[in-house]
Design brief:
- The protein is of the alpha/beta class.
- The protein has three domains: 5-69, no CATH class; 74-133, no CATH class; 135-246, 2-Layer Sandwich (Zincin-like).
- The protein is 36% helix and 26% strand.
- The protein has a four-stranded mixed beta sheet.
- A hairpin with a 2-residue loop joins strand 5 (84-87) and strand 6.
- Helix 3 packs across helix 4 (190-202) and helix 5 crosses helix 6 (230-246).
- It is flat and about 65 Å long.
- The two termini are 26 Å apart.
- Residues 223-243 and 245-256 have low confidence and may be disordered.
- The structure holds zinc ion (ZN).
- Zinc ion binds at residues 199, 203, 209, 253-255.
Length: 256
């Protein structure tokens, strides 16, 4: 049942992609990195209704777009005091401290990320310190989730690792049973990371993004014990994916 058509409308100066599909409810999402807006709507919904829905959510859409605006690419980071950096879906204010010895990153409360780097070091060096910390934290976050989901899915990854990737949140080589996760996931909410992990592990059962793959995702994510009706679980993982989009992650992992 592939009945998808895409068109564009403009609301309050914002270009909106409208995708009509066989769904029940209208859904608005804002995607990084540039804050493009996409509205998925049931086939029967009129443009006027979409306009009203977008207007109603306008403040929220602008907030999301600003958030992405405050998340420039890494190469543009200046690594100075007051700069915003993300960890596990939360925003932190960078606080640089010059040290002679041990370089480290320490979270102070819920809003400050203290980065202790060699006094006089440049932005690139500070970024390296931060990236090393992100990598370590992400590893700690992934390990138990992999164990949990390998048990649930009845699969086992032979190896996994973290690396910088430009276009994917994760990748899976089903033959070698090797998984890769994007270092950027350290910045994303835990539920987004979990979604990517499940997605890649499901590739050990199904190589392609076909109906079988989608059925497996619907079946397994999330396992929150609330009702096992097929429709409700399917709804849940889609909601989860939606949440990730809304909070800036938009995981669209693909197999590699
Ligand atoms: Zn995939």
């Amino acid at each position: 049942m592939k009945s998808i058509e895409s068109s564009f409308i403009e609301v309050a100066g914002i270009r909106i992609e409208v995708v009509r599909k066989a769904i029940l409810h209208l859904h608005i999402a804002v995607y990084p990195p540039d804050g493009r807006v996409r509205v998925a709507v049931p086939l029967w919904v009129k443009d006027e209704t979409i306009r009203l829905a977008v207007l109603e959510r306008l403040a929220w859409i602008r907030r999301q777009q600003e958030k992405f605006g405050g998340q420039p690419r890494q190469s543009e980071r200046e690594m100075v005091n007051g700069e915003t950096h993300w960890f596990q879906g939360r925003k932190y204010r960078l606080d640089i401290r010059g040290v002679l010895e041990r370089e480290a990153v320490v979270l102070k409360g819920l809003a400050t990320m203290e980065l202790a780097a060699k006094a006089g070091s440049d932005a690139k060096h500070r970024l390296d310190v931060l990236d090393r910390w992100y990598r370590k934290q992400l590893k700690l976050e992934i390990a138990p989730l992999l164990v949990k989901w390998e048990a649930i899915l009845g699969v086992k990854a032979a190896a996994w690792g973290i690396r910088k990737m430009k276009t994917r949140w994760g990748s899976c080589n089903p033959r070698a049973k090797r998984l890769w996760f994007n270092l950027e996931l350290a910045k994303k909410p835990p539920e987004c990371l979990e979604y990517v992990i499940v997605h890649e592990l499901v590739h050990l059962l199904e190589l392609h993004h076909n109906a079988h793959f989608k059925a497996l995702m619907s079946q397994f994510l999330p396992l929150n014990g609330r009702g096992s009706a097929k429709n409700s679980t399917r709804h849940h993982w889609r909601t989860r994916r939606g949440n990730c989009s809304r909070s800036g992650a938009a995981p669209k992992p693909s197999s590699g």
